[in-house]
Amino acid sequence: MKGRRAPRWMGWSVLCSPMMIAVGAAFVVGMSMVHDAAKVLRRSSDVNARLQVARARLVADMAAVAAFRSPGLEQQEFVPLDCVASVERQRGGLLIEVRSPGTACHVFSAPELPGASPGAFAFALASPNALALAAGGTRVDAKAMPTLSARELREAPRADALAMLRRDPGLALAHWDAGTEQDDFVFNDLPPRGELSTSADLVVVPGHLWIEPGAAALQIILARDLVMVVYGNVYIGRSLRVGGTGRLLLVTAAAADSTAFLDADANGRWSPGEAVLENATFQGPIEGAGNVYLGLGATRARIECGAGLCVAGQLHVLADSRVAGPVSLAHGVTQLGTARLQAAGEWLFLPERERVPGFLTSGPPRPGLLQHIGGGRTTMAKQPLYLAAIVR
Predict the structure, then answer these.
(1) Are 94 and 383 in contact (CB under 8 A)?
(2) Is 326 found in the same domain as 260?
(3) Is 3 part of any domain?
(4) Rounded to an integer, what is the distance from CA 173 to the centroid of its chain?
(5) Eight-state DSSP code of residue 145
(6) Are residues 53 and 127 in the same domain?
(7) Is the dihedral of CA 164, 246, 302, 205 positive or negative?
(8) Does residue 23 have a pLDDT over 90?
(9) Predicted confidence (pLDDT) per residue in 45-68, tens digit
(10) How far is residue 50 CA from its own chain's centroid?
(11) Which domain holds residue 379?
């Protein structure tokens, strides 16, 4: 005769007994503690790894600077940091390997820069003109102000040959009674995400550049830094957002037959009595060149400008505006009505260690910012050095 099977409820009574509940609770707590301990160990390991990279970066940076000061210095020992750095010169820059007992070696590259970039780019708002200080700027020496490189500008691609820009002959007439006497350029129809497909880091615009008014911000995605030199005025009628890993710097310049003026009535043309900023005998063209207008348009909505500005003429603020990058002014700021400028300095350049395309440099050659290539290498001879893009 087969034995009788115990009722199912009896098994549950055993599982639900106080002893089993206590055992289960202890197991859960124990597993939770093991999990937490593992998380702490992983976090500790991650922190330690980041500290090792940070220490190696510090050593590599000091070694790179020392190598430029003493070209024959190939190996350096940093006793307090317990590290040895080996420096190898390659085409376009340096390769630095940092070794420390008990840790993986780390390898960095550093481009060779011809000198320091203009010092004004290190400030949120900089000008040699005391009048610019009224907008919260920093007064800098004229030597720190940006000077364009004629050679780089000659070699740079022109807006006429780029797919990202196009002429718009009717745009200016929608804002100025007589339009303008130069070519007017706008950004071409961009992809949905706004990527600018250009391999150039310096572009020349032979005319005015417009970011036409509109309700939605213009979105631009950059994979590398881009400097746009505009031989005319820049008219910004809506917000400009710059995403990606690159930064955008808008630069104005005046052609030989034109100059900038202080457009006190903001009508886009020179009127009798308005101050001429360069040539005292200026008579035209009516719109001049080298000025920037923030907030041009009927809505006067707040402008959020994600680019930096380098203004050869006068910066005119027609609507409350916030500029994320550095603002460099050869002259000053005209804030019309109740409009105010906020130079946020959200991102700036490091002139001593970063190259700003299109501008003359000063001082002796130096290493640029380091790029961490990786760790664990034991030889440096076959490591290629890629320095085509600006290294941050």
Answers:
(1) no
(2) yes
(3) no
(4) 33
(5) S
(6) no
(7) negative
(8) no
(9) 577 778 888 888 898 999 899 888
(10) 24
(11) 21-114+365-392
